[in-house]
Design brief:
Distance between the termini: 21 Å
Radius of gyration: 17 Å
Number of domains: 2
Shape: globular
Helix content: 25-40%
CATH class of the largest domain: Alpha Beta
Oligomer: single chain
CATH topology of the largest domain: Alpha-Beta Plaits
CATH architecture of the largest domain: 2-Layer Sandwich
Structural class: alpha+beta
Number of helices: 5
């Protein structure tokens, strides 16, 4: 599987319109890939609609990317001030395929830009930590590494509440089960955004 994260940035008053437009775009009969999740940013940089899709092959991903690039209204965007970013990712190889199931009310999207050469040791560190930290990592939706642009990873987590997230992180940090040993040393910059699911998101 390959994955795409599409982010549509708009004004606060445009969010409902932009979300509906994105829904129409990914639901079009000619669209390829599987819609897995759709979120609206709630804490962090606001007024962003984020859509996660999965693709069985690179050809499928590229055909869908070409559809967007060649369209005068990609994602059915009707206003030039709305910004569209499309990113291509591959999953960490030891993680299961993403399924559109319920993870919780709050979703966290974290992106780490990595130091040069930092991806391989990051993947190794996560593979060693994922099992021992199961009570925390069972909330992991996916961890992806970018196929273009600066070396970076983006991971998505789902929690029933922000209190649950904080409690799990505090416990696993105290027990030294998290973060993955050797992982933070590879991080150049880190960002985190808390999101809520859109009504049409398969992942709830």
């Amino acid at each position: 599987m390959l994955y795409e994260l599409a982010t549509l940035s708009c004004s606060l008053l445009e969010q409902d319109v932009v979300s509906a437009a994105a829904h129409r775009w990914v639901s079009d009969p000619g669209a390829e890939g599987q819609v897995l999740g759709a979120w609206r940013t709630e804490i962090g940089e606001l007024a962003k609609i984020v859509v996660l899709r999965g693709f069985e092959t690179n050809d499928e991903l590229q055909r869908e990317r070409h559809r967007a690039l060649m369209s005068k209204r990609p994602f059915d965007i009707g206003a030039p001030q709305i910004r569209l970013q499309m990113e291509s990712f591959a999953p960490f190889p030891f993680l299961p395929k993403v399924e559109p199931k319920t993870f919780g009310r709050f979703y966290e999207i974290r992106t780490y830009e990595l130091k040069t050469g930092g991806l391989a040791p990051t993947i190794d560190a996560w593979e060693q930590a994922i099992g021992p930290a199961k009570a925390y990592t069972e909330h992991l939706v996916v961890n992806l590494y970018a196929l273009d642009g600066p070396p970076r990873i983006t991971h998505v987590w789902g929690f029933a509440s922000l209190e649950e997230r904080m409690a799990l992180r505090a416990r696993h940090y105290a027990e030294k089960l998290w973060p993955p040993k050797g992982g933070p040393q590879q991080i150049e910059t880190a960002t985190s955004t808390i999101c809520l699911t859109e009504p049409w998101s398969p992942m709830r």
